[in-house]
Specification:
The chain is built from 2 helices and 10 strands. The protein is an alpha+beta fold. It has one domain (4-140): Archease, Possible Chaperone, Chain: A, domain 1, CATH 3.55.10. Strands 1, 2, 8, 9 and 10 form a 5-stranded antiparallel sheet that branches. It has a 3-stranded antiparallel sheet with strand order 4-6-5, with helices on one face. Strand 5 (81-92) and strand 6 form a beta hairpin. Helix 1 (22-37) packs parallel to helix 2 (61-79).
Length: 141
């Protein structure tokens, strides 16, 4: 199953993400966001990783997904850190907790593609279709 696909949008970047589980959907959404943000030039022999943990709660899956992406975007925008690996991601009814490894954005290894100003609520949708999860996300660039 493909993880994500980019969709036509007039001004921003729209993406549809997929997952067999809600956890896989969140992972796919993070990968899609970083595909918009950066391109990898070459492998980094000694990544400079930082472990970060965070928790969020919300009433709807759309709010949880936005919070997840907002948190990752915050570290990218403020500290120049990009997702290296998700160590742990636990989703429960109305909440998630995550531990991620973030790598420093080094121009020798990564090239910035687009600046994402925000993950928007515009057309944000998370749904279960035929026992699989799907979400529609628009990034304000």
């Amino acid at each position: 199953m493909k993880r994500f696909e980019f969709l036509e949008h007039t001004a921003d970047i729209a993406v549809r993400v997929y997952g067999a589980t809600l956890k896989e959907l969140f992972t796919s959404a993070a990968l899609a966001m970083y595909a918009v943000l950066v391109a990898k030039k070459k492998n980094r022999p000694q990544a400079q990783l930082r472990e970060v943990a965070f928790e969020k709660s919300a009433d709807k899956p759309e709010d949880l997904l936005k919070s997840w992406l907002d948190e990752l975007l915050f570290y990218f925008s403020t500290e120049g850190l990009i997702l290296h690996r998700i160590k742990a991601l636990t989703l429960s009814e109305g909440a998630f907790s995550a531990k991620v490894l973030l790598d420093s954005l080094d121009a020798e290894y990564y090239e910035i593609q687009n600046e994402i100003k925000a993950v928007t609520y515009h057309e944000l949708k998370v749904e279960k279709v035929r026992n699989k999860w799907r979400a529609h996300i628009i990034f304000d660039v």
